[in-house]
């Protein structure tokens, strides 16, 4: 349309399928390509046309994403996690179902005999997405695992003491798959 | 319509009461991204109508049974503030606002690419702060801009305006006085690029010829509004980017 000043909005004509291959933020209607997002046009060497969004787009989960969540339920072999946000896109809610699961085999490298030894109810955890469709998560890496937990008995905050967590109030000691970042408040 | 009481002369010497011509819009003001908390937002003024639209999501749909496994569900809420009209408007949903919410949602549905976000809900809230006839059209215009601001993939923007008949003449964009004492009111929403009409309602009576003339008038005005919506979005986001020299 020749009136582009770098930025396009949804519905702007970009070109035809003879000229370009449609990429992200572009849709094809009867051989014509139009923008579906507010963004800047970028054309690659292979003539793939993309609209790079200048607005924040709804975050979706991808394999390998690090997510933050909370343990909602603990079963014999799996822990149910309600995922709150994706690392790097904390501001916006995830545009997809958010109930993930961690299988006992994906908690840490070694053998886990009892899942209750690694996670507690309402623990805040950091995990990596293994599979988007089934939302299976893993906490195998060093920086993954529990980043905040409360005492099972008195609900007081647990402090990290070496490889275990200790309740300051009732002196109870609990075990977890602790993340390197436990209690630091960093994501 | 509400005739009978006293005849008000709505047209004098070929001009309307507020001095507009028959095919003239009220002044329009659009601001994008006015709310910090919302994912996308827009403030829209059409004459004395003041409307704010906020978009949240797509986010996980609750209750689960209302999810659509194939696409996002759009939830549209049109609400009038108690202070938006002359008398106090009793707050809360009523027959009118439920109807407007439904038709407005259906006016926007065809442009939103809902299949990208299955099992989610997109919440669109339209709040009427001040009303002067034609609030549903203002709400649709605002919501469409707010959806684009939220980064939700869309095929196009939707533009909307009302036409009506006052004092025997087909005119564009009625104000409250003209709406209350006129013969007909017809809101229209349209996808500008394809001339696809996504909302068409009518209150009162129009002759076939008047209807066709009115629709033409509304469609031309929708193109004008589309340009304003587009400019508002581009102005908002070209600040953050270096002046591009891109040519498509």
Number of domains of chain A: 2
Strand content of chain B: 25-35%
Q: Which parts of chain A are unreliable, with pLDDT below 50 for 5 consecutive residues or more? A: none
Average pLDDT over all residues of chain A: 92
User: In percent, how much strand structure appears in the residues of chain A?
Assistant: 35-45%
What report would you give on this structure?
The complex is a heterodimer of chains A (187) and B (248). Chain A has strands spanning 7-8, 13-16, 21-22, 26-29, 32-35, 39-43, 48-53, 66-74, 78-86, 99-103, 124-131, 136-138, 145-148, 158-161, 164-167, 173-174. With 187 residues, chain A is mostly beta strands. The radius of gyration of chain A is 23 Å and the shape is elongated. Chain B contains four helices and twelve strands. Chain B has 248 residues and is of the alpha+beta class. In chain B, helix 1 (95-108) packs across helix 2 (135-149) and helix 2 (135-149) packs parallel to helix 4. Chain B is globular, with a radius of gyration of 19 Å. Helices cover 27% and strands 30% of the residues of chain B. The chains are: A mainly beta (187), B alpha+beta (248).
Q: What is the structure about, briefly put?
A:
By secondary structure, chain A is mainly beta. Chain A has strands at residues 7-8, 13-16, 21-22, 26-29, 32-35, 39-43, 48-53, 66-74, 78-86, 99-103, 124-131, 136-138, 145-148, 158-161, 164-167, 173-174.
Descriptive tags:
heterodimer; A: 187 residues; mainly beta; OB fold (Dihydrolipoamide Acetyltransferase, E2P); 2 domains; five-stranded mixed β-barrel; four-stranded mixed β-sheet; B: 248 residues; alpha+beta; Ribosomal Protein S5, domain 2; five-stranded mixed β-sheet; five-stranded antiparallel β-sheet; 4 helices; 27% helix; 30% strand; globular
